[in-house]
Amino acid sequence: MATIHDVARAAGVSISTVSYALSGKRSIADSTRRRVADAAVSLGYQPHAGARMLAGTRTQIFALTAPLRHDTYAPAHMAFVLAVATAARRHDYDILLLTEDEATKGLSRVASSRLVDGVIVLDVSVRDERIALVQNLGVPTVVIGIPDDPAGLACVDLDFEAATRLAIDGLADRGHRRMALLGHPDEIYERGSNFPIRVRDTFLSHTADLGLPGRFSTSETDSGAVRAALDALLAGDERPTALIMHCQESVQATVLDHLRDRKISVPEDMSIISVGSTFDTTKFSPALDVIPLIPAATCDAAVDILVASLPDPPDPRVQYVAPEYRANGSVAPVPAP
Amino acid sequence: MATIHDVARAAGVSISTVSYALSGKRSIADSTRRRVADAAVSLGYQPHAGARMLAGTRTQIFALTAPLRHDTYAPAHMAFVLAVATAARRHDYDILLLTEDEATKGLSRVASSRLVDGVIVLDVSVRDERIALVQNLGVPTVVIGIPDDPAGLACVDLDFEAATRLAIDGLADRGHRRMALLGHPDEIYERGSNFPIRVRDTFLSHTADLGLPGRFSTSETDSGAVRAALDALLAGDERPTALIMHCQESVQATVLDHLRDRKISVPEDMSIISVGSTFDTTKFSPALDVIPLIPAATCDAAVDILVASLPDPPDPRVQYVAPEYRANGSVAPVPAP
DNA sequence: TCGAACTGTCGAAGCGCTTCGACAGCCAGC
DNA sequence: GCTGGCTGTCGAAGCGCTTCGACAGTTCGA
Fold first, then answer.
1. CATH topology for B160-291?
2. What residues does the HTH lacI-type domain cover (chains A, B) (predicted)?
3. Which residue in chain A is spatially nearest to B284 when comparing CA positions?
């Protein structure tokens, strides 16, 4: 493995010149810079990570804490982990994965051993022990999701409130008055999971603000429960003409199956919007209008904030990512009575 | 942040004594060791990761390359990533996550910057560019899964062949002669995905060895396709009396739905064994007999091999994890004609 | 024309740790 | 009582890098 000394010798300069030529932190003659660069490439020089951490001030590593609970929806979770890693690489950062049982101990460990320059906290629930920890740890941190008390923290998340209003307004514009929201299992809300609650609350308040009746139901994820929840939501004379779904992929698929079985056609009899989905709703038949939760959008913003503030913690803030409506034909004007 | 000097001063010894007392690499008087340990704790001392990497020979970090393809089954994938991280922590190792588009470039980078002591390669497909790379890179590596050409590599995987035979033999012992295997989507086999192919081939060869008819079908994952595939598998006079499933959770759930719809009861009319599943088959109704793929078992073995061999690459080998049969009541003796 | 201000390069210090060799003090065996 | 071998501790070197201050050599304004 080539060291900086090897490069210096090959280029006929001192090691400090190599360092400056490669980092650009001092002006170096173009001819020298080129010689150094050539030598580095031809020797396959890679700076020793440990030496860099020791001498320099950066480690080029972020810690990512991504708890995996049994009720975590793995595909979405995975997409976020991946999006964070990809965003980090764009800034020349690697990702160190902290597991759940290591969440707090691991955070303290990597922070105080100065293994990482910063921390990215994923999938925050309303009460999250990691939040209190990073608030005290002093290590630069960015949170993806909005904790109950974001005091002192930089947080990034899709603007679920705006997304929900966008869905409702879009439906209202098409003449829909009776809307329903199908959500996650009860447990999710009870645990204080963040955005499902925000969607539910916004749905109820914004429909009320518009003077519209809004029906909401939770649902377990197995197909029987989904069908029952849907039937309940659609029961009675005043059947909703529009459905907003904020639930996982298999549940949305089951809903479409069940509507088909009940001969309720989309969008003729029922308009549907999928909110905050991380998967591709055009694979469904029919394809669904969606206000997606785009992991890359959120994670890019989060990493940008963190990188920009280094070596200091980012300024406290709650940064919302604007929602984006994607029409795929599952919304139609309300049918004539 | 306390350094080793602070600890040395607090304990009234030299820094080398602190180092030896903490690492145990030389004999230190018990009283001294205790004083050092106390000082370290009360100062909250954590060795500087960079300094350790530079001076020592270990970084206490493994790279994990875990590609995420669109057809990857995220929950299983996630479980493996988690199991690797957990196993690594037991040996005081952290996990650096390498993403797919970084697979080869990232591997070279972290290896030649000596950021990691070893590499764990997850989810190997038969032709995998990462394999050739780690074969040449010289960095200690362990592969989870069996590549086409494992030359020079240490590989760990569930013994899918033995698992498949175990399922067949168990059914044969109960008098079953007509068995069917429901597998993954075609694409998986075409891509050369490793273990689905091993299960399929073993199923076909072992049933043949026993002189039994073995029916095999692939299936897409959507419920319509699953039902069609199952109908095809069960068609004809000589309907199979037993079904082995080697497919993802939702497909297995659909199979049970469909059997129920067709009034085929389990296990009275049809015995079922789930092979190589990473999820809990007792949540189904009925609960299914299973020969599980236990991420922790495989990953523990993999990490053990890697840690044991450090700082050298592990001896080349293919280590199979023995399958384990879990009876949950979905297998019965073949019904009287 | 002279000093001030740059520009490009270098040497050396030092980041915090591990580890090697040295050595004082001790005990056991002759 | 002396030697040889332990045991417990220390000082110092050095890992590979960044960065500070120094300093020739050059340019430019007064």
1. Rossmann fold (3.40.50)
2. 2-56
3. A222
Q: Within 7 A of a protein CB, which nucleotides of strand D? A: 7-12, 14-21
**Which residues of chain B fall short of a pLDDT of 50?**
none
The CA distances from residue B117 to A263, A286, B46, B300, B313, in Å, are 60, 50, 20, 17, 10
Reported residue count of chain A is 337
CA pair distance A82, A85, nearest whole angstrom? 5
Residues contacting A53, CB < 8 A, separation 6+: A59, A114, A115, B48, B49, B50, B51, B53, B54
| Per-residue pLDDT tens over the stretch B116-154 | 999 999 876 656 778 778 888 889 999 998 887 778 889
CB A64 within 8 A of CB A82: no
Q: Residue B242 has which token pair?
A: 């037993």
- Residue B271 tokens, joined: 């015995």
A22 CA → D19 C1’, Å: 14
Q: On chain C, which bases lie within 7 A of the protein's CB atoms? A: 7-12, 14-21
Segment among A185-199, A319-333, B26-40, B124-138 with least mean pLDDT? B124-138
Q: Helices A223-234 & A249-261, crossing angle to 10 degrees?
A: 60
Token pair for B95: 């996990």
From residue B178, give the alpha-carbon distance in Å to each of A112, A201, A203, B164: 62, 55, 54, 15
Q: To probe the interface with A, which of B1, B7, B46, B102 has the most A CB atoms within 10 Å?
A: B46
Q: How far is A109 from chain B (nearest CA, A)?
A: 7
Helix (H, G, I), strand (E, B) or coil at A89: helix
Which residues on chain A are in Cβ contact (under 8 Å) with B1? Answer: 112, 114
Q: What pLDDT is attached to residue A77? A: 86
For testing the chain B interface, which of A4, A7, A54, A136 should be mutated: the one with the most B CBs within 10 Å?
A54
Taking CA–CA distances from A284, the nearest residue in chain B reads: B222
* Cα of A118 to nearest chain B Cα, Å: 14
Q: Which strand (E) or helix (H) includes residue B156? A: strand B154-158
Q: What is the CATH number of domain B4-47?
A: 1.10.260.40
Residues of B in contact with A51 (CB under 8 A): 50, 53-54
Q: Measured between beta carbons, which residues in chain A are less than 8 angstroms from residue B68?
A: 78, 82
DSSP string, A91-126: TT-EEEEE-GGGHHHHHHHHHHTT--SEEEE-S-BS
* CB count in 10 Å sphere of residue A178: 17
Res A136 pLDDT > 90: no
Check: CB of residue A132 under 8 Å from CB of residue A292: no
User: Would you list the domain boundaries of chain B?
Assistant: 4-47, 61-158+295-321, 160-291
DSSP at A151: T
CB contact under 8 A, B94 and A110: yes
Mean pLDDT across A248-269: 89
- The encoded tokens of residue B180 equal 């069917």
Q: Which chain B residues have a beta carbon less than 8 Å from that of A249?
A: none
Predicted confidence at residue B126, as pLDDT, reads 57
Per-chain mean pLDDT for chain A: 89
pLDDT at position B166 is 96
Q: Enter the tokens of residue B53.
A: 């990497």
Predicted confidence at residue B53, as pLDDT, reads: 94
Domain A61-158+295-321 matching CATH 3.40.50.2300: the answer reads: yes
Q: From CA A129, how far away is CA A132, in angstroms rounded?
A: 6
User: Do the domains at A61-158+295-321 and A160-291 have one common CATH topology?
Assistant: yes
Distance CA(B200)–CA(B179), nearest Å, equals: 13
